[in-house]
């Protein structure tokens, strides 16, 4: 009976050793999430009515393909008004740069000559009244009025001289600078309206899949509302939430294996992003073992052979022990 007892002891020891090895073996770090694509949202550039939709949800489109058209009438009118304002500002600047016309200068010279003649007449009349006033042959008020008229005529002469000098010297540099600024502002406004008009014809900025078209023909979405949502990129990525206990073992660039629900074969991937801030419960509200409830959002980029997989599939990601 003794050999049988020793054999049974060996079996028990062997079973215990195997159990210990299994218990000591660590499962690979893993996280749960969903399959996602990069999304592009095309917002409404203006609050205009939708007049045409060229795509449907789930359709693949190439870059530059037409997606939707909005009503253009009001924006076209605004563009025409802005272009007219730009032309007016441009012509005003050209007028400033050309300076005064020769006819205006000739008119100013004629006005100066007329003012000088009136001043000479007023001064002569005052000179004649002065001796008569001293002899009390005319009233003192008449002499005063003649003196004031002569002074006023001299002032008119100086004003005419200044007006002529201003025309002869031409347009000031500050006025030209103001004209240039006004033209630049008008042209910028016209360019803005032209861009807005162009955006009323929505086109695909990148090749991808039309994921959502929230509005229908005849709807008038507010400015900034999403008109078309696209899924783009050569391949999808896994968006997962990394538990706090394994956060220190996950790094950007680390290779990983992605398991989709219902598929046994793993898809290779690589960690492209992991947040430094926890998601869900804030870290400062947790103590002790509760810290294990923290999760960190991460993204694992898949390869091109996964490009046909639909978005939203549940998945599990296992992270390799070392970065590749």
From TrEMBL:
Every YbhG-like alpha-helical hairpin domain range: 75-198
Places the protein is found: Cell envelope
Keyword Signal: yes
Principal localisation: other
UniProt keywords, alphabetically: Coiled coil, Signal
Key word Cell membrane present: no
Signal sequence coordinates: 1-31
Originating species: Luteimonas cucumeris
Protein name: HlyD family secretion protein
Record's GO cellular component terms: cell envelope
PROSITE patterns: PROKAR_LIPOPROTEIN
Coiled coil: 67-163
